[in-house]
Amino acid sequence: MASxxxxxxxxxxxPQGKRLFSxxxxxxxPYFGSIHLRVDEMSPHFAQISLxxxxxxxxxxGTVHAIxxxxxxxxxxxxxxxxxCPKDARWLPxxxxxxxLAKSTSDLVCTAESxxxxxxxxxxxxxxxKATRDDGTVVVAGTIHLWVTPKK
Length: 152
Description:
Order of helices and strands: HHEEHEEHEE
Distance between the termini: 17 Å
């Protein structure tokens, strides 16, 4: 069975491939479909998605709802984990710590980053996440902790 990362590399090489992968990824994890994400990049130790500011993800003051931003961060983390996790291991999200730093007044870019050292020191693997506005302002930042264990 091909991995999610293999599927991304194969599709992203095609015209409209990232768009098609984004749709497929949102179908595999339907909750991610609620934010209409677009996968920008997926690689070991890094992933980036774009989250459009649209009415369905706005709160009562017209900014992107904090939970929608967290959904985008979790999607980016999942892509990173799929591209980074060793084939003989599995990963599960263990917890999320985030700070809301500014209003989310535009589309957001959600990124997830880790290092080889983070993964070598498992099974608790921290993934640094952030959501950034169009003007470069970080609006949400934090860490998602993964629990990485050998497959049985």
